[in-house]
Amino acid sequence: MSTTRQARAHARSADSQPAPPPDLAPGTRIDEVIEAAERLFVRGYRRSSVRDLAAELGIRVSSLYYYFPSKDAILETIIRRHLEDIRDLARSVVARGTAGGWPYREILRTLIAESVLFLIRDRRAAEISATQTRELPEAVQEQLKPPLKEYEYTYIDVIRRGIEAGEFIETDPFMAAYIIFGAQVRLSAWYDPEGRLSPEEVARIYSTLLTRAIARNPDDPAFAPPQG
Question: Where are the domains of the chain?
């Protein structure tokens, strides 16, 4: 297709987009709908209705359909965004570590620390992902598995390479990775932002203790248990 025809096709597509509903609150955007949905869904997806969400946003129920065709579509978007973001974070850590020539223990420790910080920042979506995915149709659940599996494989591959390099003890990399995931998965359920530990302190404790657990030389000063 020529550039002119592409431009015309784009213009027709733009012209065909419906205008935002007139009763939308000023500045309402998809992110605001998602944030409001997270506040409701974290208390229970089934207990939260589209009417509740519209009331939270101060708009009519019909206006929500400008953004999403159904409540399930909102839940799917929350979970998909969360899983894709944490997958991309993990890929970024490994890319930085590989480019910088970091030892695998440092890549793993950074991977755990940054994952924990992300899970704390995005704790509503993390909790929804951990507890509400089953509310979606099975076909949609299957579509959400790839980013989660890619995130998990990033850990497994780092651990496997660390074992091969002699930095980690001989162990099953899948089991080691899933022990780490088990420690992370309900972080969102117990972490209190008003509590005595900051997100950075929690990330430091998690990353040091979990990396030290499989380190070939746990007495290395780099793996000293965190104090305080």
Answer: 20-69, 71-223
Largest CA distance in the chain: 67
What DSSP state is assigned to residue 193?
T
Cα Rg of the chain, angstroms: 22
* pLDDT reported for residue 66: 85
What is the three-class DSSP state of 97? Answer: helix
Sort 199 into a burial class: Cβ within 10 Å, 0-12 / 13-18 / 19+.
middle
Contact 144, 133 (CB under 8 A): yes
pTM for this predicted structure = 0.83
Contact assessment for residue 136 and residue 41, using Cβ atoms and an 8 Å cutoff: no
Does CATH place domain 20-69 in 1.10.10? yes
pLDDT at residue 223 is higher than 60: no
| CB-CB neighbours of 19 under 10 Å | 6
pLDDT of residue 8: 39
pLDDT the model gives residue 220: 67
Helix (H, G, I), strand (E, B) or coil at 215: strand
71-223: CATH topology:
Tetracycline Repressor; domain 2 (1.10.357)
- Contact by Cβ (8 Å): 52, 33: no
Contacts for 164-172 with beta carbons within 8 Å, 24 or more apart?
165/103, 165/104, 166/216, 167/103, 167/104, 167/105, 167/215, 167/216, 168/104, 168/105, 168/214, 168/215, 168/216, 169/214, 169/215, 169/216, 171/214
- What is the structure's pLDDT at 218? 67
